[in-house]
Amino acid sequence: MTSRAFGWMGQCIPFRDGETVASALETAGVYTLGADALGQETRYFCGIGACQCCLVRIDGVVREACITPARSEMTVETMEVRRD
Amino acid sequence: MIDPEVIVIGGGPAGIAAAIEVAGCGYAVEVVEQRDSLGGAIHRQPIKGVAPISQASGPKARWRALSDDFASARIPVRYRSIFLGVDADGLVLFENRLACSVERLQAKAVIVATGAVEKVLPRPGWHMAKVSTAGGLQVMMKETGRAPKGRVLLAGNGPLLIAVTAQMARLGNPPVAIVEAGDPLGRTGAGFSMLGHMSLVREAFGYLRTIYLRGIPWMRASQLTAIERDDTSLIAVVRRANGREQRIPVDRIGLHDGIRPNDFALPNEKATSVAGPVILRAGDCRESLGAFAAEADGRRAGRAVAEILSGGHERADLGCVKIERARRAQEVLSTLFAPVGGACPISSLPADTILCRCEGKTVGDLRSLCERADRLTGREIKHNGRFAMGLCQGRFCAANTAALMAEIWPQAPAPVAEDLTGRRWPIRPVSIAALTGARATSTEHE
Ligand code: FES
């Protein structure tokens, strides 16, 4: 099994082939995915793309961490990180 | 690539079965799936190099047969594509996550098979990090082959809690306890009716055996009344059957209070191809009865679409025996697991309990909206109070909000979740830039 990694807030998060961003973060002990627009903490909740509580920016694009497969070129950031 | 005649939304058992039927009747069909593999939440596939999680033998064999049939029918799948809705011109819109674009397809019929979502009742602290749905913990386990780490507590209501418990135990980290609002062992009457559904009995027995052998506390007739946290742990506050309160320090909590159709903002069903495509729903998003019924219902919807497209009429009697049987089994299960002492009223929760997580709206906020002299409708509660207005489009709060409104106004006609959510697409948030760049895909993929 190849082990690769993506970037998360200055940290290197290893993941296994086919794994989602959310499960790689969980394995690395990251349980909160930053604050949402209202300042509430976000997190993995439903796992099926329904609750929108796990939104992160992946290469600048807002995505659900729970249904997005991890790739090594990715930069994953919390929603608070603005790029405008 | 030519536009398909029929589009199936969702690659779980209902969608796959529907697509097989449609293809078998000679129509060109495509499946749109949000992930990069088929199976839905129920048959979530493990990542490379990970053994599939143990599953009861019946469902496993059924899924294998279904996916083999699907593979031999050579039906194309658009992976990583999120269904957004059907626009005013009858075009089917979806977001292609690989290309980062919104695409449109013209089809004669759409079968929507978006599955179920879990019900989660509000409790103080349910919105905190490290609290997930039990099903959410389960899909992650299926994907990674690893149980969630640390001290895990599962709480709520229904048979899924014991299934997740047994799977966690087999992966080496059983939950510290299961908090169950019902008392299935105390309901012998319903227990006997279970005997009519032997496959369910066998499955449940397998789970209970694991729980018993491992000595996992199954706290029945108990409620998780609040979640608190200190510097290191979450604290689960549990009210036991004898009325005593117990505080259990844990690292992770999985909540689950049943399932319901994931039918939020879906287009209405439409049994004619005049003025836009035929639209039918199949499986758990129509009626949440589980994988067995979903497959049968998918076949029903697939045949119904073929029937309508060939100029016939949708026949209501198609393949209903299995669905009827699954419905009876579900009724028995819900009697068996009925919360002891009835459902806990939401109005008894502290005012600062979050009701709608996306918008940070509380039980107290809804109460003060409802106390206004002019009685608000469900839509007004949504627009004035921002309940069910957020990104999840009410999937996790609309039913709870409607239930609390009914508790506050017992004389008024009871509002339902749909009064709050409405039927507007896109059914999932999408960027305006992607939406305005929407293009017909047939020209793109030639
Ligand atoms: S955890 Fe619910 S959408 Fe990702």
Secondary structure: elements and pairs:
The complex is a heterodimer of chains A (84) and B (446).
Chain A (H helix, E strand, L loop, with lengths): L2 E6 L2 E6 L4 H7 L27 E4 L2 E4 L10 E3 L7
Parallel strand pairs in A: 1-5
Antiparallel strand pairs in A: 1-2, 3-4, 3-5
Chain B lengths: L5 E4 L3 H12 L4 E4 L24 H16 L4 E2 L2 E6 L4 E6 L4 E6 L2 E4 L3 E3 L12 E3 H11 L7 E5 L3 H11 L6 E4 L7 H7 L3 H17 L3 E2 L3 E7 L4 E6 L5 E6 L1 E5 L2 E3 L16 E4 L9 H19 L10 H17 L17 E3 L4 E2 H8 L7 H8 L12 H11 L8 H5 L10 H5 L2 E2 L6
Parallel strand pairs in B: 1-2, 1-7, 2-3, 6-21, 7-18, 9-16, 10-11, 10-16, 11-12
Antiparallel strand pairs in B: 4-5, 5-6, 8-17, 13-14, 14-15, 19-20
Helix pairs in contact in B: 1-2, 1-7, 3-4, 4-6, 5-8, 7-8, 9-11
The complex binds FE2/S2 (inorganic) cluster (FES).
The site of FE2/S2 (inorganic) cluster has 12 residues of chain A, from loops.
Q: Can you describe what's shown?
A:
- The complex is a heterodimer of chains A (84) and B (446).
- With 84 residues, chain A is mostly beta strands.
- Chain A has one domain: Roll (Ubiquitin-like (UB roll)), CATH 3.10.20.
- Chain A is 8% helix and 27% strand.
- Chain A has 1 helix and 5 strands.
- Chain A has one helix at residues 21-27, and strands at residues 3-8, 11-16, 55-58, 61-64, 75-77.
- A 5-stranded mixed β-sheet of chain A has the order 2-1-5-3-4, with helices on one face.
- In chain A, β3 and β4 (61-64) form a beta hairpin.
- The longest helix of chain A is centred in the N-terminal third of the chain and has 7 residues, at 21-27.
- The radius of gyration of chain A is 12 Å and the shape is globular.
- Chain A starts with a strand and ends in a 7-residue tail after the last strand.
- With 446 residues, chain B is of the alpha/beta class.
- Chain B has 3 domains: 6-116 and 260-313, FAD/NAD(P)-binding domain (3-Layer(bba) Sandwich), CATH 3.50.50; 120-257, FAD/NAD(P)-binding domain, CATH 3.50.50; 346-419.
- Chain B has 13 helices and 21 strands.
- In chain B, the strands form 6 sheets. A 5-stranded parallel β-sheet of chain B has the order 3-2-1-7-18, covered by helices on one side.
- In chain B, α1 (13-24) packs parallel to α2.
- Chain B is globular, with a radius of gyration of 22 Å.
- The relative contact order of chain B is 0.15.
- Mean pLDDT of chain B is 89; it is low at 442-446.
- Chains A and B meet through α1 and β4 of A and β9 and α3 of B.
- FE2/S2 (inorganic) cluster is lined by residues 44-47, 49-54, 64, 66 of chain A.
- FE2/S2 (inorganic) cluster binds at residues 44-47, 49-54, 64, 66 of chain A.
